[in-house]
Amino acid sequence: MARIKNIDLPNDKRIVVALTYIYGIGPSRAKKICKDAGISEDIRAKDLTVEDVNKLRAEADKYVLTGDLKREVEMNIKTKMEINSYQGTRHKKGLPVRGQRTSRNARTRKGKPKTIANKKK
């Protein structure tokens, strides 16, 4: 089982798909990592040799991933909240940040729907 950035890659998936299990690696970055490491995209994760895993690890280390990336994103959000930018105030209130409507379907950030007294349908 290949282990990169403390993430166990699933054995029976293609290496391009398996790399996307790491936070911060999407499909295009996974393809770039495979290309730079000189590994075929069609090989399965269980068929990788130790050398291949080491090459992938070396390529993945060139990017900010997992814990460092999460910390960086959190710090960016905290900075916006401290300087009272528009996005920062939306984060504080738990509302959608990127211009979505709130009157219809913003439950993911606002939480469970609250019943309103005397509202008739």
What fold name stands as the CATH topology of the largest domain?
Answer: Helicase, Ruva Protein, domain 3
| Residues in β-strands, percent | under 5%
Structural shape: elongated
Helix percent reads 40-55%
Q: Oligomer, anyone?
A: single chain
Mean pLDDT: 89
Radius of gyration: 21 Å
Structural classification = mainly alpha
- Please give the number of β-strands: 2
Low-pLDDT stretches? none
Distance between the termini: 56 Å
By DSSP (H or I, 4+ residues per run), the number of helices equals 6
Query: What is the CATH level 1 assignment of the largest domain?
Result: Mainly Alpha
Number of domains: 2
Question: What does this entry look like structurally?
Answer:
With 121 residues, the protein is mainly alpha-helical. It has six helices and two strands, in the order ββαααααα. A two-stranded antiparallel sheet has the order 1-2. β1 and β2 (7-8) form a beta hairpin. α2 (27-37) crosses α3 (50-60). The model has no long low-confidence stretch (mean pLDDT 89).
Please sum up the structure shown.
The protein is mainly α and 121 residues long. 46% of the residues lie in helices and 3% in strands. The longest helix has 17 residues, at 66-82.
Helix-strand blueprint:
Elements: E1 3-4, E2 7-8, H1 15-19, H2 27-37, H3 50-60, H4 66-82, H5 86-93, H6 107-110
Antiparallel strand pairs: 1-2
Helix pairs in contact: 2-3, 4-5
Summary keywords:
Helicase, Ruva Protein, domain 3; 121 residues; 2 domains; mainly alpha; two-stranded antiparallel sheet
